[in-house]
């Protein structure tokens, strides 16, 4: 059973021909959030994942076995809750507020253009429905956001700051437009005026 101890995020820098020959390893979210795991790839080969503790695998990542073979990670379909704004009783702002509150409670959430996706939790599903959100049980790949999104590549309006840009931003963009409140200048607005 070969050890797998190298990770190439999203297979960056690898030729398409190499990626095409790679076997696949389909894992659910819990399996992709650990350093050690015994698993079987798409060709039936037993593998031992010996990644550093705290390693998180994402769909599309590529692993390298000690024999030099490549294994592409696929996010397995698993039970999830899909949460969206209620068209009759709610608004997209309800969904944004909920994402913020779930993040504050450290609930693993995947942001999607049409809504949120999270691990099944009956009590949480009831609470979300009480907030006039639509909650549907489904089977789907689960790729929740992680702290790396906050540490990933990004630039500020004034340019990049030291210490930024160490890694990729993961996840998917959220396509919900939110209108900002008009800004009023004057005493107490919170910034200096020229």
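Q: What amino acid sequence fits the structure above?
A:
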């Amino acid at each position: 059973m070969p050890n797998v101890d190298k990770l190439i995020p999203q297979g960056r820098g690898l030729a398409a021909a190499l990626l095409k020959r790679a076997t696949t390893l389909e894992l659910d979210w819990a399996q992709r959030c650990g350093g050690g795991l015994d698993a079987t790839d798409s060709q039936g080969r037993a593998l031992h994942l010996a990644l550093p503790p705290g390693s998180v695998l994402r769909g599309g990542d590529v692993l390298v076995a000690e024999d030099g073979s490549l294994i592409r990670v696929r996010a397995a379909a698993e039970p999830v809750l899909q949460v969206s704004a209620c068209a009759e009783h709610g608004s997209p702002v309800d969904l944004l507020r909920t994402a913020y509150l779930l993040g504050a409670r450290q609930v693993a959430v995947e942001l999607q253009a049409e809504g949120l996706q999270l691990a099944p939790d009956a009590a949480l599903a009831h609470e979300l429905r009480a907030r006039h959100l639509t909650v549907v049980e489904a089977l789907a790949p689960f790729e929740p956001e992680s702290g790396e999104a906050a540490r990933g590549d990004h630039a500020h309006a004034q340019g990049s700051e030291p210490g930024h840009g160490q890694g990729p931003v993961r996840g998917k963009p959220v396509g919900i437009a939110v209108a900002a409140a008009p800004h009023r200048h004057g005493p107490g607005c919170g910034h200096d005026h020229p």
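Q: And what stands out in the fold?
A: Confidence is low (pLDDT under 50) at residues 148-194.
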